Amino acid sequence: MTQDELKALVGRAAVDYVVPGSVVGVGTGSTVNCFIDALSQIKDRIRGAVSSSVKSTERLQALGIRVFDANEVESLPVYIDGADEIDHGGNMIKGGGAALTREKIVADMAERFICIADESKLVDVLGRFPLPVEVIPMARELVARRLRALGGEPKLRAGVTTDNGNLILDVSGLHISNPAAMEAEITQWPGVVTVGIFARNRARVCLLGTAQGVRTLEF
Ligand code: 5RP
């Protein structure tokens, strides 16, 4: 199976985790696009969605799914999103699509994070994928210096402004053996909006697309 077929497989499988009558938290990316397409088949059975990006909002609305403002919603049983990497504890690197801040907000609103990913995303230790960090433009160099002091090599993502008007630094060379500690450390630096480590909001379930079918990991 191709990577696109694996993404479609897990996108369809995630529909089983949607709670009837609820609002669904929806992430961002090519795997989530497959989920949104599958969700449109059962749109009459949900109230709508809270979205983590302008791109996902546009896709949801184009398929006739109501998108709620996050501030209007009190209860979100599940948040369904992809990942750039996921380890065997459900910790993730996210933000390859630059949507990490809104993704972390919607993940935090939800009771359970269901990750959908093809098997290439499963790693022993996070860090091979460059870690995205969303920064306020004024703090770009301050944060870059601190990331270098941690042993990383930050690179400004060229031509990208996030949905929140900020910049992304992609940090290579990090070996993230303690995701929760590194997330807590980087998050507190002035000028950092969001770091793309999702340990505090880690996945509770991962639907992994493999050549043998969907493998379900629970954490
Ligand atoms: C966007 C993300 C995505 O979930 C991540 O980049 C995975 O994307 P894809 O499903 O296209 O591989 O974090 O900010």
Task: Supply the number of helical segments.
Answer: 6
Name the overall outline.
Answer: globular
CATH architecture verdict of the largest domain:
3-Layer(aba) Sandwich
Mean pLDDT: 97
- State the strand order across the main sheet: 3-2-1-4-7-13-14
Distance between the termini: 26 Å
CA-based gyration radius = 17 Å
Structural class estimated from helices and strands: alpha/beta
Helix percent band: 25-40%
Largest sheet: 7 strands, mixed
Please give the CATH class of the largest domain: Alpha Beta
Give the percentage of residues in beta strands: 25-35%
Ligand catalogue: ribulose-5-phosphate
Return residue spans where pLDDT drops below 50 for at least 5 consecutive residues: none
